[in-house]
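Record 1 of the preview.
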Amino acid sequence: MRDSRRFACTRGLGKAMAVAALAAVSLAVSAGAASATTYTALGDSYSSGVGTRTFYNDGTECKRSPLAYPPLVASARSLTLTFAACSGAKTSDVLNNQLGSLNSTTGYVTISVGGNDAGFAKVIEKCAYPWPWTCWGDITNAENFMREKLPGLLDNVYNQIRSRATKAKVVVVGYPRLFNGVECNTLARISPGEQERLNQAADVMASVISARAKAHSYGYVDPRGAFSSHEICSGSEWLNGLSNPVSESYHPNVEGQKEYTREVETQIP
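->
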């Protein structure tokens, strides 16, 4: 009699444990499925799609493009996109304006930021001025900022992303070298020497951003290799030189954004 009661009790306990285990698995699968389909794109004009000349009419000045890599990646991977990237964004803008959609169910996050903090666009503008203006000192100042100040700014942003998107795969997206040493823009005569120094500054930026991404265990997209032979003034440009409107200058064009899409997709299963 005691044995039969013990068997019945054990059988009931086993059934309850099995039900609980199935429920836990079900919840885990549901949570994983939810997080695997949501994607937030953060950052600056390289993520918003400046350079493609085609933008959503979303009531902002962010210049978000349907031809930028975030919507292209989202479409290819069937992800639900929150497109928060905005032209001109610095690290402070990401912190103050772009993190609202992040939570524990966010599956993927991409971010490009740092160029505007270092004032890189202003440096290029200075380099494009006619003689006797020079930009050597401006480049050096930008590089010093990248080495000394930018790491802390990036760490703050990356920490805030992780504190909200606790389970997300985060991919940091870098910047290409812009120049190949050829002068083809008559209205923006950036000398071969200035182009070389600007490319060196891009390498400094890449080393800083990639190091901070690695420190946070984030993925990193380095576009410099892919964009080699597709710089401004090359036979197959993936980047705009001096353009009309000027805001389209020195940004990836439609082909450049397609390459960014390919690069980012390698980081998203």
